[in-house]
Design goal:
There is one protein chain. It is elongated and about 60 Å long. Helix 2 packs antiparallel against helix 3. It has three helices and five strands. The protein is an alpha+beta fold. It has a three-stranded antiparallel beta sheet with strand order 3-4-5. It has a two-stranded antiparallel sheet with strand order 1-2. The two termini are 39 Å apart.
Length: 155
């Protein structure tokens, strides 16, 4: 974070920045903090991106979905009498869709699609793990931008 003196970005505590200042910051891809609607003084990052231009909230959402689903899949596969077949694979894909629905239901992921191959076309296992890259896709959406995202399925 860098302090700038060229632009007055101060607002009364808890008040939003003026639309003009917000537009200048957005145009410059500058992250700023926005107070949330309570009296605790909590703030949320707006416009956060890496130096290469990747959108941090979108990266976080993909990482969360991948990790959460990986845990759910591991728990399911650790049960007794789970078979390595298309039925089990469809259950795992359903779990992946359920994980993403946490964000589709609040409008943060739109146009969610399962893009994983059919069971017969799965990639070979590395040791005892199969990783399906780009098993799902969608668009991360916030009020600043829409970003295409892809996630994986680890079994």
């Amino acid at each position: 974070m860098v302090k700038i003196d060229v632009l007055d970005v101060n607002a009364i505590y808890g008040a939003p920045l003026s639309p003009q200042v917000q537009n200048i910051l957005k145009a410059g891809n500058v992250q700023y903090w926005k107070y949330v609607g309570d009296s605790t003084g909590n703030v949320a990052a707006r416009g956060a991106s890496t130096m290469q231009g990747s959108i941090l909230p979108a990266l976080w959402m993909v990482a969360f979905c991948n990790y959460y689903n990986k845990c759910q899949v591991a728990s399911y596969l650790a049960r007794r009498n789970v078979k390595k077949d298309g039925v089990t694979y469809n259950v795992l894909l359903s779990m992946l869709a359920t994980t993403a629905s946490k964000f589709t239901s609040i409008g943060r992921i739109s146009n969610f699609m399962l893009t994983a191959p059919a069971f017969a076309n799965l990639p070979p296992a590395a040791d005892d793990t199969i990783v399906v890259e780009n098993a799902w896709s969608g668009y991360y959406v916030d009020d600043l931008r829409t970003v295409k995202i892809y996630g994986s399925l680890t079994m």
